[in-house]
Structure formats: C-alpha cells, structure tokens
Design goal:
- By secondary structure, this protein is mostly helical.
- The chain has a single domain, classed as Globins (Globin-like, Orthogonal Bundle).
- Helix content is about 55%, strand content about 0%.
- It is built from 9 helices and no strands.
- Helix 3 packs across helix 5 and helix 3 crosses helix 7.
- It is globular and about 55 Å long.
- The chain binds protoporphyrin IX containing FE (HEM).
- The site of protoporphyrin IX containing FE has 22 residues, from helix 4, helix 5, helix 6 and helix 7.
C-alpha cells in the first residue's frame, strides 16, 4: 500500500487506533501496602457489604465518572491519568476494605503534592464517593467504615 493510501485510510478511520488504555509512566517510588495510608479493615462483613471486588470496581468507576462531570472537580482532574487512577483507587479501596490484593501506588502525600488541594475539594470528593456507594446500595454502617479510614488522609492530601 502506498503511503498516500495509508494516510487516507488512517484519516478515514479505517486503520485501528492504538489502544487508549495505557498508563503514563511516573517517577520511581517504593511499592508498599503502607502507601495505602491505613491498615485494612479486619471485619469480613465490610468487604461483603461492598459486594466484593465487583462492587468496589463499580464504585470506583462511578467515582471516576464524577471526576469527569462534577464541576467542582473537573478542572482538578482534567489532566489526570484515568487508567492509572482507576486501577490504583480500586487497589487501595479493596486493600482498605479487607479484600484481596495489594496497593501498588504512591503514598497519599506524594500522590497529591503540589496540587494545592483545599478542604472543599476533599469534601466534594467524599460527597461523590458517598453517591457512588449509595448507587451500589452499600449500607450506611459499611460506608462509614470506609469513610472513617479515609477521613484522616485529609492531612496528607489537603495542602492549603
Ligand atoms: C482520602 C482521599 C483520597 C484518596 C484515597 C485518593 C487516592 C488517590 C490515589 C490512589 C491516587 C493515585 C496515586 C498514584 O498515582 O500513585 C490519586 C491521585 C490523584 N488524586 Fe487523589 N485521593 C484522595 C483525595 C483526593 C482529592 C480530594 C482530590 C482532589 C479533589 C484528589 C485528586 C487527585 C489527582 C488529581 C490525582 C492525580 C491523577 C494523575 O495525575 O494522574 N485526590 N489519589
């Protein structure tokens, strides 16, 4: 196929675009569950109330949906690596909820440094997380277990 034909085919969308689902590289860091920022919940009823791995994945997906649509958050997340974020939030929530697997992301202070996040940004994200958990029909008592684990992370995430 001549180059011009290839270019035309690409322009017409006849050639498959490379997969979009690719994470961007980040500076090296030490991988450790300690980076999740808290110890896992030991009561197995909590992970069950979140409907296990599937429930956690659905909650993370709808939370990420809010990052695209909540006008309080869209600017903050406009340049985010959603592939990486979705994977790591899933790992982190699953780990904290006492589910299987490990957290392989950065610690909360490093992940959010230089973002200049404020208390109102934190509160907006928590509100959206609550909506995501409601949508998954996670009972309030179990929601509160996760929120109690996340609340102290405000100190690491909020920098102004
Ligand atoms: C307890 C609350 C929070 C948790 C558990 C959390 C968790 C995470 C995780 C796991 C990452 C990925 C870390 C990595 O790449 O290694 C991340 C990145 C990020 N978080 Fe948070 N976060 C929290 C609060 C917030 C808040 C309040 C905001 C802003 C409203 C925010 C904005 C971001 C942004 C913009 C990134 C980077 C995305 C990118 O550059 O690709 N986070 N967060």
């Amino acid at each position: 196929m001549k180059l011009s034909t290839l270019a035309l085919a690409a322009a017409l969308g006849l050639i498959a675009a490379p997969a979009l689902a690719e994470e961007q590289p980040v500076d090296p860091y030490t991988v450790s569950d300690a980076n999740a920022g808290t110890a896992p919940i030991t009561d197995p009823a909590v992970f069950k109330a979140f409907h296990g791995q599937g429930g956690v994945n659905r909650i993370v997906a709808s939370l990420i949906g809010f990052y695209h649509t909540d006008p309080r958050l869209t600017d903050i997340f406009h340049a985010a690596d959603f592939e990486r974020l979705q994977r790591l939030l899933g790992e982190q929530f699953c780990y904290i909820l006492g589910g299987p697997g490990h957290y392989t992301g950065r610690d909360m202070a490093s992940a959010h440094k230089d973002m200049g996040l404020q208390v109102r940004d934190f509160d907006a994200l928590v509100e959206d997380l609550q909506s995501a958990m409601d949508k998954e029909h996670v009972p309030n008592w179990a929601q509160n277990k996760l929120l109690a684990k996340l609340a102290p992370m405000k100190r690491a995430v909020v920098t102004r």
